[in-house]
Amino acid sequence: MLIMPLGDIFISEFNINTQEYSFLVSAYAFAAFLSSLCGMLFLDFFDRKHALQLSYAGFTIGSFLCALSTTYVQLLGFRFFTGLFGGILGAIVLSIVADLFKFKERGWAMGIVMTAFSAASAIGVPFGLFLTDLYGWRIPFYVLGGTGILLSIFILFFFPSLTSHFEMVDRKRKPIQTLGLILKDKNQINALLTGMILVLGHFIIIPFITPYMIRNVGLEQVQIKYIFLIGGLLTIFSAPYIGKLVDRHGVMKIFVIVCLMSFIPTILITHLGQASLYIALIATSLFFIFGSGRFIAPNTLITAAPTQENRGSFMSMKSALQQLAIALASFISGTIVYISDTGTLENYNYVAYVSILVIIVSMFMTNHLKVAKGN
Question: Is residue 32 scored above 90 in pLDDT?
């Protein structure tokens, strides 16, 4: 959420091309993929609170190291380090949600989780861009690290211990047996692949939204914060509402509707020429609403694919594959898009066509998922 709005700044400051910039995005995601794979083998054997503490500590240190970077290579390395800890946070959060909420209530809970991401966009990103405008790109990383310290203290003293999953977990189970619990269940494999495909289709658009808005649409860097402010604020309200609709009308009906609606802003964003800030905000805000909204329904089903016996390991594997999807999405879009001699981004429209095709595949895959017993 912080690297991508600053994309054009990094391209200019480090004098890098689109593919090198995509590595900044994918380095975090690839590291998160590796750590989530390790987490898959061990996560179910630990108190969710302790796992959360460790992840936040590493993420905080990594954020400070990013702020201290003076070269492209250093920033790339420290982003990788941060991803080793930050990536597994998503798996832990989804495990906690699935532990605490039954399936019939989980759509609403997932909507609240997505609201948190929206709040990060509406508050964190514009504030980070505001600080960047005043003091440079390193300051937001310092603030992010400081926030991590505060959250780590909160988790230590106020977050409850969460060990209810121990009742379902065989404590003598070997790590390799954990992998077997997933691989022998066709439904869990399908759920993992569905989540990966969905993320790939969504994030292939994301890395170059900011550079495209600046270089092709004509926005200024100082105006980029309004994209995340308006879009984030709208999704704070839309995400819980979509979650309630999922609980009321069912996963597939709402998922299909939201996906079809998301194709409109996907085309708009990637085909805009020179336009005013207001036109750009309409396109990006619709993408925020329906792009983030299409995660709610399938995640309700995906989190219901495993039983509590291996939920943590499943969520960690889910996080690993989705982080791999983000890395692949950044790499693919960085390969397709290039900067022309005039300084504009070219071929971004082809990225939209790939995105839509991949999302359509995820719709068919979601329709075949089943809810495991005990959810």
Answer: no
